[in-house]
């Protein structure tokens, strides 16, 4: 008989995303043409230079061994240069950069380096699910900051109780924001850093959507408000900007003490990626800005196509300023939960969305669209949604074929 599992696993039990995964599989087995808009996995191609570099590394036997920290020097230098070119920030690649297996690894492991059991971490609700998972694994206590449309889905620092501020050790933010698509200004980051310094809180900023701002908007780095890197660390992933999700490559940049602590935790768990992947990632970071501009235009066109189509079927979804998502209030007149809506929708139509409740209690009442298929498929998906809504709003609880 297997002994009882650790209590830290209890908050990580099955969730609405598990049920959605099964529902998608059921739809496939039922013969439906699945259009999966539930997962933010880019369908676009990485830079050709990155793929060529990875391929050429396969014939180099020097890449076949374990990759230790000092073997990642060229990649870390590419990361530092990318930040310096993009934000005008000086970065020491030796002490202020750490390669990661995606930014998600950084946000999951940082709490293990910072939190003692019972320490408080400030998180957004709604927010990315892995952020709270890392807090639970470290034995920390999450305190959720409500994000609401009236405040532009930004936290309100003056609404946090003083006792919570005294106990908090870590604040985790991510702007442009998944799932709400909200953006933050340079002024917001200045206020946030002042709050963190006042209460001696570490700021961790998950920054995978830095390049997905539309209509001339620019996403500032949190480190621009903390150029001396006194209490901040930022995580970047090549999954979104460079369409390299399956390569699992990202990095952290920030305060050298935080980088050292995170490196210590990471080194007890794994080595770094295959050298060929890191070489390819460095090549991606060196690609011209025209690469990012081209694909940003593709996502902007998808955004415009999807929002127009949804408005046409009577679902007035807001036009997002950033990210690869739409954050849509449930259709007027639908009386069920976001989870039930998504389960019923994929069963009836083969169109999969993410329920807002999967991102936190404040996400209830919303669903998230990931714009990860071409425009014609988006239009087909929304056409099916229109037929579904026609039936579901006229006949609540009905079964659809």
Account of the protein in words:
The chain is of the alpha/beta class. It has 2 domains: 7-45 and 290-393, Aspartate Aminotransferase, domain 1 (Alpha-Beta Complex); 48-286, 3-Layer(aba) Sandwich (Aspartate Aminotransferase, domain 2), CATH 3.40.640.10. It has helices at residues 16-29, 48-57, 73-87, 103-114, 129-137, 162-167, 186-199, 238-241, 256-267, 275-285, 289-312, 338-349, 375-394; strands at residues 35-36, 97-100, 120-125, 141-146, 168-173, 202-206, 232-237, 250-254, 325-329, 351-352, 354-355, 366-370. It is globular.
Largest sheet: 7 strands, mixed
The number of helical elements comes to 13
Report the uncertain regions: 397-401
Biggest sheet strand line-up? 2-8-7-6-5-3-4
What structural category do the secondary elements indicate? Answer: alpha/beta
Termini Cα gap: 44 Å
CATH architecture of the largest domain: 3-Layer(aba) Sandwich
What's the CATH topology name of the largest domain? Answer: Aspartate Aminotransferase, domain 2
Rounded mean pLDDT is 93
Total domain units: 2
Our estimate of the beta-strand percent is 5-15%
Helix content: 40-55%
The succession of helices and strands, N to C, reads: HEHHEHEHEHEHEEHEHHHEHEEEH
Whole-number radius of gyration? 22 Å
CATH superfamily of the largest domain: Type I PLP-dependent aspartate aminotransferase-like (Major domain)
Which outline best applies? globular
**What is the CATH level 1 assignment of the largest domain?**
Alpha Beta
Number of strands: 12
């Amino acid at each position: 008989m297997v002994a009882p599992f650790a209590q830290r696993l209890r908050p990580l039990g099955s969730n609405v995303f598990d049920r959605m995964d099964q529902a998608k599989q059921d739809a496939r087995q039922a013969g439906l043409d699945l259009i999966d808009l539930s997962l933010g996995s880019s369908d676009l191609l990485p830079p050709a230079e990155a793929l060529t570099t990875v391929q050429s590394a396969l014939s180099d036997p020097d890449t076949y061994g374990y990759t230790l920290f000092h073997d990642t020097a060229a990649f870390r230098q590419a990361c530092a240069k990318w930040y310096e070119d993009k934000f005008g920030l000086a970065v020491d690649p030796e002490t202020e950069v750490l390669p990661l297996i995606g930014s998600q690894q950084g946000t999951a492991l940082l709490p293990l380096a910072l939190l003692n059991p019972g320490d408080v971490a400030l998180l957004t609700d709604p927010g990315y699910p892995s952020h709270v998972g890392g807090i639970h694994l470290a034995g920390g206590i999450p305190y959720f900051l409500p994000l609401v449309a009236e405040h532009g889905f930004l936290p309100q620092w003056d609404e946090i109780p003083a006792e919570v501020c005294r106990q908090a050790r870590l604040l985790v933010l991510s702007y442009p924001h998944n799932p709400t698509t909200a953006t933050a200004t340079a002024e917001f980051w200045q206020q946030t850093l002042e709050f963190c310094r006042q209460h001696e809180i570490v700021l961790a900023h998950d920054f995978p959507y830095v390049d997905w701002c539309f209509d001339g908007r620019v996403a500032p780095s949190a480190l621009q408000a903390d150029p001396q890197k006194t209490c901040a660390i930022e995580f970047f992933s090549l999954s979104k900007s460079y369409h390299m999700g399956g390569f699992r490559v990202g990095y952290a940049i920030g305060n050298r003490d935080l980088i050292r602590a995170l490196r210590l935790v990471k080194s007890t768990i794994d080595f770094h990626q295959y050298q060929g992947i890191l070489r390819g990632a460095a090549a991606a970071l060196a690609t011209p800005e025209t690469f990012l501009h081209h694909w940003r235009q593709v996502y902007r066109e998808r955004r415009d196509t999807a929002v127009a189509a949804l408005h046409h079927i009577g679902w007035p979804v807001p036009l997002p300023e950033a990210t690869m998502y739409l954050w849509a209030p449930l259709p007027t007149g639908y009386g069920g939960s976001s989870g039930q809506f998504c389960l019923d929708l994929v069963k009836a139509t083969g169109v999969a969305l993410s329920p807002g409740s999967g991102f936190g209690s404040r996400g209830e009442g919303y669903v998230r669209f990931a714009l990860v298929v071409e425009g014609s498929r988006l239009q087909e998906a929304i056409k099916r949604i229109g037929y579904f809504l026609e039936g579901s709003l006229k006949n609540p609880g009905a079964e659809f074929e």
